[in-house]
Amino acid sequence: MNIPNMITMARLFMTVLVFVCMQLAVSAEPLNVTLAWVAFWLFIIASVTDFLDGYLARKWNLVTAFGRIADPFADKILITGTLVMLLQFPAATQILTFWYVLIVIGREFLVTAIRGVMEASGQEFGADQLGKWKMVTQCWTVGALMLLICGVEWLEWPAIAGYWLSLVLTVVSGLNYVVKARHVIVQGGL
């Protein structure tokens, strides 16, 4: 368990706290804005750790098989789980739709399956630049939606822009991974 992997595990713990704060916030009558703000800041910190752990792992040459699996897993839980939680908030669902969340979750299942097959065949299959930009735009979108539930209404247009940009990058990056792994898929590996 090296430092980058410990950061990844901390991200998973913070993700659970994000979910708890969001659920407590939405369950309160009226909405507990303080808990919504706590959830937002925990989400921001967790998002930053996504970039930090990968950077440190590469810089210090600490890339491990565990990290290659745990890091994208933590990312997927953070983004997809927070999107699902946001579906409970009317301020978020003015922009966020169920079908968007389903596309994001479907893409993550697909890429995880491809990554598993590729790694099992002995080929590293880490995130590429398109996948990283997808993550940035998803974090932007989720963060902006969380701010909307906190009452920061002027972020509606940035949230809408992030929503559509992240949707395009989610689909395109998913297709990109399929193309990159086509030789294994065609051979019946998936």
Question: How many distinct beta strands?
Answer: 0
Mean pLDDT: 93
Using the alpha-carbon principal axes, give the shape.
globular
Please give the radius of gyration in angstroms.
17 Å
Topology as H/E string? Answer: HHHHHHHH
CATH-defined fold name: Four Helix Bundle (Hemerythrin (Met), subunit A)
Poorly predicted regions: none
> Strand fraction band?
under 5%
Could you explain how this protein is built, in words?
The chain is an all-alpha fold and about 190 residues long. It has one domain: CDP-alcohol phosphotransferase transmembrane (TM) domain (Four Helix Bundle (Hemerythrin (Met), subunit A), Up-down Bundle), CATH 1.20.120.1760. The chain is built from eight helices and no strands. Helix 1 runs antiparallel to helix 2, helix 1 packs parallel to helix 3 and helix 6 runs antiparallel to helix 7. The radius of gyration is 17 Å and the shape is globular. It starts with a helix and ends with a helix.
